[in-house]
Amino acid sequence: AHEPIAIYAGGLEQIAVSQFIDEEADYNFEPLEKLLQISPQRILCLSRDELIQQCGGAAVVAIVLCRANAGLQETTQTAEPMARRMNIVNILCRLYKEYSKRISAKKFYKLIHVCRCVGLSETSQLSLHWFRTFFDQELSESTRKFNPNRMACHLVVWMLYLTPSLQLDFSLLQEQLSLSAARTREILQYVGCSCTSKMVAGSDPELVAQLKAPLKFGMPKSSG
């Protein structure tokens, strides 16, 4: 395999382990599962508000529209696992927004804080995985500090993984996370994307990124 997503597929498990996702019964977002089974033409005719309501967030809308424009439609067998993986985007966005606004040199968190934010129990393997991945050990193994740069990079990679051609408009993620255009572009370029800004008549500007270079799992040096 020579495609970036095939070469680095194992790295995706750093973001959300497949087994852990499937173990969380509550992580299937039913409105999204139903949406993915309707025709791409119908999806493209829905309003922005309708899409956000059924997708759970603007970032997932971008993925759904990308797949619809490519003519992709899920079956009754594939809709649930795809909806689960798309819903991970909603949850990671929630984590980012919750903890990036609290970022400070002296702010530390325990696993229970993450569990409450994502709606999982303290025995959840997925919440423990995220706690260890996106929160750096500081005072002890159980007391950690949030790393927003690492989460942003991993979130971008996960979203690209859900597209058919590793290309996506990230303006909706930028909006949902309240990032600047410069910051969004920095993150995208860091993980190996080429970026293009597009003006669309009657719509907000698009920030289209395509993964061409090898995936990077880490964080840019800038903290802005």
TrEMBL record:
The keyword Transcription applies. InterPro entries: RNA_pol-assoc_fac_A49-like (IPR009668). GO terms for molecular function: DNA binding. GO terms for cellular component: DNA-directed RNA polymerase complex; nucleolus. The keyword Transcription applies. It is found in: Nucleus, Nucleolus. GO terms for biological process: DNA-templated transcription. Coiled coil: none annotated. Pfam families: RNA_pol_I_A49. Keywords: DNA-directed RNA polymerase, Nucleus, Transcription. Belongs to the eukaryotic RPA49/POLR1E RNA polymerase subunit family. This is Uncharacterized protein. The lineage of its organism: Eukaryota, Sar, Alveolata, Dinophyceae, Noctilucales.
